[in-house]
Amino acid sequence: MMLSESLKHLLANSYAFVIKAQQFHWNVEGPNFPQYHEFFGDLYAEVYASIDKTAEYIRTLDSYTPGSMERFSELSQIRGQLKIPRAELMFAELEQDNKIMLDCLNQCMAFAKQENAFGIENYLAERIDAHNKHGWMIRATLKKERA
Ligand SMILES: [Fe+2]
What we know:
The protein has helices at residues 3-27, 33-60, 69-75, 87-114, 118-142. By secondary structure, it is mainly alpha-helical. Helix 1 (3-27) crosses helix 3 and helix 4 (87-114) packs antiparallel against helix 5. The longest helix is centred in the first third of the chain and has 28 residues, at 33-60. The mean pLDDT is 97. Bound molecules: fe (ii) ion. Fe (ii) ion binds next to loops. Residues 25, 41 line the site of fe (ii) ion (FE2).
């Protein structure tokens, strides 16, 4: 694979992640509703803000950027959630999806290094940082309180 191809997977995974976090923002229920609703809202907004930049880097590499739900679902390794899970399961699922995001980002990083794309390396490093932070917050939310 080339860097541009790996960035197309990143773009599709980012959309899939955003759609799922937004789905959970809309549908989460329970006694922690206000915090969870806000947490999922901040999460999808942060990842959404990266999408345009990823897409424009694909163009910088002289490749065309995919832009349809059909292509995104072909390219994404993150699967959509058709049901409404309980709040705890929403976090568990996003923890797994966040790992897929990090795997994908690391793969993009390996190609960026191969192709000496220093600007894109910087960008990917920032995204890895952001998803490491998301992972921490998701895991901290899942953790049971100490008795
Ligand atoms: Fe909202």
